[in-house]
Design a protein that fits this description.
The structure is a single chain. The chain is built from 6 helices and 2 strands. The two termini are 17 Å apart. It has a single domain (20-154), classed as Ribosomal Protein S7 (Orthogonal Bundle). The longest helix has 18 residues, at 35-52. A two-stranded antiparallel ribbon has the order 1-2. The chain has helices spanning 20-29, 35-52, 58-69, 93-110, 116-128, 133-147; strands spanning 73-80, 83-90.
C-alpha cells in the first residue's frame, strides 16, 4: 500500500513582488540550493522582458506566458490485459502549474543565448506570444491526448 500523501509546504512570498507563484518558480529554477542566484536570474529576466514587451508589466507577461504554457489534459499509461494504453486525463491545478513551470525552465535551459536570464526572458516572451519550445510541448501533449481520446473510457 502507498504511503500517505506528502504535506504541502508553506512557501514564503518573494521579496520584490510578494507572490508565492514567483517563489515556486524560483525554487524550480534553482540549482544546487543557490536560491539568491536563482532570484537574481529571474528578476534580470523580468527586466529584459519589460524592455522587450512595453505594453504590459513584466510580471503580468510572465503570468500570461505561464498560463499559455500550462496543459489542461495529459496522457497516462495504463496496462490493461497485456496491452499498454495511453489514457487522456485532466490535469490537477497544482500539477498543471508545476508542469508549466518545468517546461518553461527546461525550454529556457535548452536555448543558446549568452546568459540564463536572456534564455528565460526569450522563452517567457515566446510563451506570451504562444510560440516557442514550451508552448510546443503543451501543444504536443494536447495532440497526444486528442489522438488517444478513444481510450478515455479506461480512465480510473
Amino acid at each position: 500500500m502507498r504511503k500517505s500523501r506528502a504535506k504541502k509546504r508553506i512557501l514564503i512570498p518573494d521579496p520584490k513582488f510578494g507572490s508565492i507563484l514567483v517563489t515556486r518558480f524560483v525554487n524550480n529554477l534553482m540549482l544546487d540550493g543557490k536560491k539568491s542566484i536563482a532570484f537574481k536570474v529571474f528578476y534580470d529576466a523580468l527586466d529584459i522582458v519589460s524592455s522587450k514587451v512595453e505594453e504590459e508589466e513584466a510580471l503580468l507577461v510572465w503570468e500570461k506566458s505561464l498560463e499559455n504554457i500550462t496543459p489542461h489534459v495529459e496522457v497516462r499509461s495504463r496496462r490493461i490485459g497485456g496491452a499498454t494504453f495511453q489514457i487522456p486525463q485532466p490535469v490537477r491545478d497544482d500539477r498543471r502549474t508545476s508542469l508549466g513551470m518545468k517546461w518553461l525552465i527546461d525550454a529556457a535551459r535548452k536555448r543558446n543565448e549568452k546568459t540564463m536570464a536572456n534564455n528565460l526572458s526569450s522563452e517567457i516572451v515566446a510563451g506570451y506570444k504562444e510560440e516557442g519550445a514550451a508552448y510546443k510541448k503543451k501543444q504536443d501533449t494536447h495532440r497526444m491526448a486528442e489522438a488517444n481520446k478513444a481510450f478515455s473510457h479506461f480512465r480510473f
